[in-house]
Amino acid sequence: MLEELSIRDFAIIERVTIRFDRGLNLLTGETGAGKSILIGALGFLLGGKADTGMIRSGAEETLVSGLLDASGSPEALAWLAERGIEAEDGAVVVRRGLRRNGRGAVYIQNAPATRQDLADLTSFLVDIHGQHEHQSLMKVENHRRLLDRFARTEDEANAFARDFADLSAKRRSMERMAQGERERAREIELLRFAVEEIRAAKPRSGEEDELRDEERRLAQFEKLRDAVMAAREALTGAGDAALPALRRARSSVEAAQAVDTRLGELARRVEDAYYELEDVADALRAWTDGQGADPARLEAVEERLAQLQKLRKKYGPSIEDVIAYGSEGEERLERLENWEEDREALAAEIAAMEKDLYARALALSDRRRAAAALLEERIVSVVRTLGMPHARFSVRLARKEASEAGKAVVGQWGVDEIEFLIAANKGEAPRELARIASGGELSRVMLALKTAFAETDTVGTLLFDEIDTGIGGEVALSVGEHLQKLAKARQVLCVTHLASIAARADNHYRVEKALEQERTTTRVSRLEGEDRAREIARMLAGDPHGGTSLAHAAELLGRYAPRGATNG
How much is the pTM? Predict the structure, then answer.
């Protein structure tokens, strides 16, 4: 529901704020007062096209904002939730501005948005019918949804669409499997070779580092042995070798200790050093006695390193990657070799789903056709009372071209292509709603549609522009009656020139021009009591003060005004 509309510097409007309520909200006023400008500003707010000509002369920017109650629209609340925008108790503030340089700005709850975002969100909340573009019923893609909603098959259709999407994904998988038969055979061959090569090589994590250490020792064995021998000689050789020298030092310290017992700790330390070096000397001796050059082992190590390097280049870059490649390759190879089994299972699953969905699509189509016939009757019965006595409304349900004899093609929403058609005048063939020429004619058709859909359509606010064009008398009374009925379930905004319609308003607003500081501007005021009666009188006879016109206005208000409205 539209609770408030604020307009600044839009065309001849300087500043206007209008509070709307539930029920039937009617805007009246002299021709040229600015009613169409108000509708244009609302269309701008709802995501319509814009140009800088909309900006009031002398202003640098126009700004239109609205307070919308989205609490009754699950679609709008879901749209907001998906984008992380929170509606405060269902209330949503939308703003749109346009500057002279052509730059625009859109905000939804103070979050920057695009014009398309604005149009998408508000399409769940407001419909404008008349000469404007914000018309959900004009979009053929919405006709299927509306018929399903009317037929109470929307949940069934949505479940069907989800299962059809699953079927489509499985079909794509099957196509990829069939198209990739040659690639599959080639991949099996390559994987089998790789897995067998890695399996035969049996690489170990860390093996390469161990082999490089061993290669270095074997390749420099002579140098290594000479170094060890030199160390051994330094410890145990003749002359000033370390062990003989330490032996003499130990004897001397022991002799000194016999005289000075305070040297006992030093004597112990010298003795420990002697035995530690003696152990080192024994270890060096054991190493030299047990080692020898091994050209065969060096060759084996080098061959193994070359083998591992080859594996790394092909499956690496590291041995760990080679091992992982082998494990994953074995799993992938098993899947590919079992492909025929998987393909047969998938084909059987697809066939079962196709059979199930085809049966469900036909059942859904039957329910739609039954609902379509009822909808046609309801629309025709309404629209013929609205000044279109020869109108014919039809719902076209065409099945897609047969893929086999007598069998329809199943799509995302079943087997039906759905479109609403109208023949507004006698002798005309039914045609698309978008091709209705007259704005008033279009509004009346939309009024009939909205009346029929009132129980199922979730759009909370409907605005009808030019709905009374070319009508009067009984037709005008019928239009007013239908608007009043529709307003019991929806907020209805309507621009009218007919007193018999205006008298039915729950909330009546007068749009008028005013001269302020030598500038023309538009003002909007809510009418109550005598002011409302005078406006009805003006609409009847052009005389807001004449006794006869006021009496007639009082009669209309007494007859048609809703209970609780202030009639004057």
Answer: 0.60
